[in-house]
What we know:
The chain has 344 residues and is α/β, with parallel strands linked by helices. A twelve-stranded mixed sheet has the order 3-4-2-1-5-12-11-6-7-10-8-9, sandwiched between helices. 36% of the residues lie in helices and 16% in strands. It has eleven helices and twelve strands.
Amino acid sequence: MKTQRANKLILLSMGDLCGIGPEVVAKAVAEPAPDLAAKLCVIGDVAVMRRAMDWAGVKLPLLSLSTLDEAETLPPGCVAVWQPEGMAADLLACPVGQIDARAGAAAALCIAAAVTAIQAGQADALVTAPIHKEALHAAGVGYPGHTEMLQAMAANGGEVAPVRMMLANQELRVVLVTIHCSLRQAIDLISLERVLETIRIAQRAMLNFGLKAPRIAVAGLNPHAGEGGLFGDEEIRHIAPAIARARAEGIDASGPYAPDTVFMRARDALGHAGEFDVVVAMTHDHGLIPVKYLGVEQGVNVSLGLPFVRTSPDHGTAFDLAGSGRADASSMKAALAMAASMLA
């Protein structure tokens, strides 16, 4: 039964507790944007979050919720934490800065609890702190990352909807055709249907962001976009036909462009108006390197195609910084702002 709430509620999963996730979550909740029109609640272990607040220097009181329904009447100036059932009792014993199966299991539990709450109408959006893929694997969680896990959970026993990863900052947006797989496997996954589906998802996302006529650049896979088949024929067999199909549907897609120059052309910065609103890239590193090179501080990962809003910061668990109090929460704050804007 879905509940009727007066305020939007954004959940923040604590991520891998051996990394900087709990710390950046604590900092982001303690210092949200002044115009953030939503309630915030952390899904995580209460003791772990209390320790993270100490590390981060957050002086606000921690409010432990018995149920998520209590988030509707949260007082200002607190860090609200809801601890789902099944959390291990010895999480503070996990070695900070190291891979631990208990941390992987706890991270997965928080994500699952958050998705269940959103599906039940108890919350509106999810912002996820970084998880560690090896810790997930050690815990027996059969997903390579957040995107695949959320895609399966969102299916809820029904058909699995196509989901794509978008990484965005103030200068560049990139949507990926393939994500967490080997490069060899990614090349095998490139097909007309998959590229076309990604273009369509990118188009819908840009329309939802308020762009009336999105300009979509499609990057090639091979050097110089294959150079007419001299350096590979995926552009000829798959990518160019997908672009043609998209254009026949009225989508302003163009390419395939050489992947070593298209991101520079799309970058929208002071003194350089971007030629495109979003770039569709074939592989994980092709697309994410240019966005991350511009700076992870404002980068946001957005899952496109899910039936709910999900964002995350543009960085990993940063084991080398865990427990130091020096983790930068800028990207987490940007992810919160992005989620709030998508709910507006």
